[in-house]
Input
Amino acid sequence: MSWMGKILGGGLGFLLGGPIGAVLGAVVGHHTMDSGGGFSSLESKQGIYFAATFSMLGKLAKADGAVTDHEIEVIEQVMRNNLRLNAQARKFAIDIFNVAKDSDDRFEDFARQFYDEFGNSPEILTSLVDLLLLVAYADGELHRAEEAMIMDAVQIFGLQDHYAQLKSRFSGVPGNIRTYYEILGCREGDDFSLVKKKYRKLAMEHHPDRVHANGMPPEFAQVAEDRFKEIQHAYDMVEKHVNRR
Output
């Protein structure tokens, strides 16, 4: 049984404090969260990742002071089409989203607790920023208040040097060779040996098996696979571009 099946079954839980624990406790009942036991270390990480993601998305949606019907529609669209969550996971995610958006804890509080758990796994930190950007860009525009919040997470996670690279996936021109270079953390004209080195590092860090082994929930399998394929595609396009010169 998955971590979600265990926690929603009500018979098992894991000890967790902080804002993420408070949100989960409100959603599934404090008796479940406080009972302890029954969860492996990996299952606990998966639960924390899932709860942190939708808690931070709740705060992100409220960045301008209120959550609109359109923003809720965008979140639900991403859950169906990008994350491809099943009905049970979508309901759980929406419950977390709703509790977190109205909680007294700040976006940064959730980000700091997430960093405390995953600070030694930069690929996991990066994957969460990817998800935040995915949702923020889902309506075709990254709003100033949304980006300010995402930058708070980027700074807490120590990813300032990687933000432009992560953002290029969504802000770059599709099919543009410059965008492919930026996805790989390179610039057009860089020596191909450097491009290949950075590609191999990215492909290793973002391989779905690795990110899932380090705590990404299985419910996010599709987004992990899509990210890995995008890295591969960018490299293929850059290689073809270099070979044509």
